[in-house]
Amino acid sequence: MKKASIILSSALLLGLLAGCGSDNETNSTNSAQPANNTSAANETNAGANNAAAEQGKYQDGVYFAQGEVDANSGWQSYVTLTVSGGKITEAKWNALSEKAPVDKVTYSKEGKYGMKAGGASSEWHEQAEKVEQYLIEKQDPKAITLGDDGKTDAIAGVSVHVSEFFNLADQALNAGPVEVGPYKDGTYHAEGASFDEHSGWKDTVDVVVAAGKIVKVNFSGVNDKGEDKKQYSIDGKYGMKAGGAQAEWHEEVAKAEAYLIEKQDPAAVTFNDEGKTDAIAGATITLQPHFELVSQALEQAK
């Protein structure tokens, strides 16, 4: 009878362990890496990292995942995690938007996101910090209860939707460490020394870096009235197409911004005596001053 009991207990235990393994499988979507990372490297790291996670340890390194653009808000979330000594030591939640020249944390710190103005008890970046700290404390993105609306009651003072953060953190950890770029994470700004005597605009650039790589570039400018050049063009006031051009100013700089994100190096473009380049299809405007400002901005990221 004792032998029979032992055999039956062992069978039940094996069945339970098998069930737990099945429940822990990840079916997350919204995968992305900073520019120049390869999916092959992620696949190589995924198996070893999953085994480490089951032991309560993660492989040391930097992890990154980026979601899709939210159809309602226009923001695209991304998560950067740092693991040292097998534990998550740093967690960063942020987002990008075509409507904002900088990242979401910076936008919130500048008072432009306006959650408190809308009645919230704290701004978005303040709530994001609490969410990040919760993950560092728990060490497991699945160790949280989420409502159907993507919110949680588990973190005091947090009223924003947090599901995307935890989903992306889980996705990043399962994918494995990424290759980190040469720059320090952050948002960097540079602008011309003065207003152009002919156009009246002073060039500006903002560069966002995550996992060491450029994930967003914003080329714009400002005039003596404080108007933003990109928005001025979007509003139809710059009038390049009316003057015979094939595209408006903001449409051409969008191509240059995308090119820079792809190349990751502002020095990878050559310009003629007019400050123009043939390297970027569809960009006929003078771009050299903006690329030089990007180099200047990235000096702060070294």
SSE layout and pairings?
Blueprint: H1 2-23, H2 39-54, E1 61-69, E2 76-84, E3 87-96, H3 104-109, H4 124-138, H5 163-175, E4 186-191, E5 202-210, E6 213-222, H6 229-234, H7 249-263, H8 288-298
Antiparallel strand pairs: 1-2, 2-3, 4-5, 5-6
Structure description:
It contains 8 helices and 6 strands. It starts with a helix and ends with a helix. The N terminus is likely disordered. The longest helix has 22 residues.
The share of residues in helices is 25-40%
Main β-sheet, in a few words?
Answer: 3 strands, antiparallel
Query: In sequence order, what are the helices and strands, one letter per element?
Result: HHEEEHHHEEEHHH
Strand order of the largest sheet: 1-2-3
Distance between the termini: 71 Å
Query: Count of DSSP helices?
Result: 8
Radius of gyration: 24 Å
Oligomeric description of these chains? single chain
Shape label: globular
Fraction in beta strands: 15-25%
Mean pLDDT across residues: 87
Structural class: alpha+beta
Low-confidence stretches: 1-32, 36-42, 44-48
Provide a concise account of the structure shown:
By secondary structure, the chain is of the alpha+beta class. Helices cover 34% and strands 18% of the residues. It has 8 helices and 6 strands.
Name some characteristics of this structure.
three-stranded antiparallel sheet; disordered N terminus; alpha+beta
